[in-house]
UniProtKB/TrEMBL annotation:
CDD domains named among the record's database cross-references: SPRY_PRY_C-I_1
Listed InterPro entries: B30.2/SPRY, B30.2/SPRY_sf, Butyrophylin_SPRY, ConA-like_dom_sf, PRY, SPRY_dom, TRIM/RBCC
Alphabetized PROSITE patterns for the sequence: B302_SPRY (PS50188)
Protein name: Zgc:194990
Domain B30.2/SPRY: residue ranges: 206-398
Pfam families linked: PRY, SPRY
Organism: Cyprinus carpio carpio
Length: 411
């Protein structure tokens, strides 16, 4: 009996010790003083809260409920200061803020060197720019700014996702309200465009997984009917009559000769190419090996040349059922947790953006950014013999009806 009691007592002692250690760590964290960068972010949130009416979401920041990591604060300060400085030198500030492209961000090198040094003092000039801007905006708008219903809907959505743990911090809300102050008005078209520019004009993996419902609706509004082009399909592929489905056959088919036909990789192009505009399509993929994306009109289709960015292909590929990668040069390996069953492909030709989404999780996977100059064709590839790759009809995309409501049709 004594041995049995000892068996229970020992784990309890260990658990009590771990709880004490945890309390000590929590107390230590609470007593840890804020860095100057964190204090500046809190002050910026307080000022934006005063300038933008009904922007109570930022109270989570300036009251200390949402404290960003110091490195995130420093990066945000440098980026924001440079945007504000550019805004002062243009007659159309909102346009510059929304259309800022990665290749124009020469401040990135400044940011990297500053972060490598790791000093708070080096951020002094950037902090002064932000503080001067906030003071100027408070004087310019003594009665505040009404952000508009569309912005408030976005803020509610962001706050909900943050409270549920889907966002690590509320940087998105701060960026959105800075955009409101710079532009003084944001319509339903500009909000999602600004979000995508800020959050996905980067090749950083998982730059933001969460997609606000307003942004998702805007993406889905670009839905287009996409069909497979039989003249480009590898002879090993079997296409359905409506050219919406394909899979590998047991043997190669007899097909007419075509200069645009894949003769090595088991791939096929879409029948229509794009030279402008926004386009979105969804594809149900297999669980073994597939590829999706776009191909430039000049991209070669003969032989086993790598189908990557160097040869004119911007694609996502699942290999051997476990390796998800963006076929950059060299390839960019993505986490296994990103592997989707249904992929949304979003192309914005003018913005030079090609993004991939897990439509069932409504999450961002990866984005290519490039200045497009030639026609782009949807591109598909599969080695599945049992499960078909299926292009979903454009009218199956349902809009999100409210915060937290996905509203996607399930077949």
């Amino acid at each position: 009996m004594k041995d049995c009691l000892q068996f229970l007592i020992e784990p309890a002692k260990k658990l009590k010790f771990r709880l004490k250690e945890t309390r000590k760590r929590v107390k230590h964290v609470k007593k840890e003083p804020f860095t100057e960068s964190q204090l500046l972010i809190m002050e910026l949130a307080r000022e934006l809260n005063r300038i933008c009416q009904r922007s109570d979401i930022l109270a989570h920041i300036w009251t200390g409920e949402d404290v960003w990591p110091p490195h995130a604060c420093r990066e945000f300060i440098v980026e924001t200061a440079n945007i504000l400085e550019m805004q002062e030198n243009t007659e159309t500030p909102m346009q510059v803020y929304a259309d800022l492209r990665p290749e124009k961000r020469d401040w990135k090198s400044q940011l990297l060197s500053t972060l490598e040094q790791g000093g708070e003092y080096d951020l002094g000039p950037y902090k002064r720019i932000i503080l001067d801007w906030t003071r100027g905006q408070r004087n310019r708008h003594p009665h505040g700014i009404w952000p508009g219903e569309a912005v408030l809907m976005m803020l509610d959505d962001v706050e909900l996702r943050w409270k549920r743990g889907h966002l690590s911090h509320l940087q998105s809300a701060v960026e959105l309200l800075i955009g409101v102050v710079l532009g003084e008005h944001m319509d339903k078209e500009l909000i999602p465009r600004l979000w995508l520019v800020q959050k996905q004009k980067t090749q950083k993996i998982d730059c933001t997984g969460y997609i606000p419902h307003i942004v998702w609706n805007w993406i889905c509004n670009a839905a287009v009917e996409v069909t497979l082009d039989p003249e480009t399909a590898n002879p090993a592929l079997v296409l359905s009559e409506d050219c919406k489905r394909m899979q590998c056959g047991l043997e190669q088919r007899e097909v007419p000769h075509s200069l645009r036909r894949f003769d090595s990789w088991w791939c096929c192009l879409g029948s229509e190419g794009f030279l402008s505009g926004r386009w979105y399509w969804e594809v149900e993929v297999g669980d073994r090996d597939w590829r999706l994306g776009v191909a430039k009109e000049s991209a070669p289709c003969k032989g086993y040349r790598p189908l990557n960015t160097q040869s004119g292909y911007l694609t996502l590929r699942l290999e051997r059922g476990s390796e998800l990668k963006a076929l950059t040069t060299p390839p960019t390996l993505l986490p296994q947790s990103f592997i989707p069953r249904r992929v949304g492909v979003y192309l914005d030709y003018e913005e030079g953006q090609l993004s991939f989404y897990d439509t069932q999780k409504r999450a961002h996977i990866y984005t290519y950014n490039e200045r497009f100059t030639e026609k782009l064709y949807p591109m598909f590839g599969t080695v599945e013999r049992v499960r078909e790759m299926v292009i979903r009809p454009a009218d199956l995309r349902e809009r999100c009806l409210s915060e937290g409501t996905w509203g996607t049709k399930v077949n």
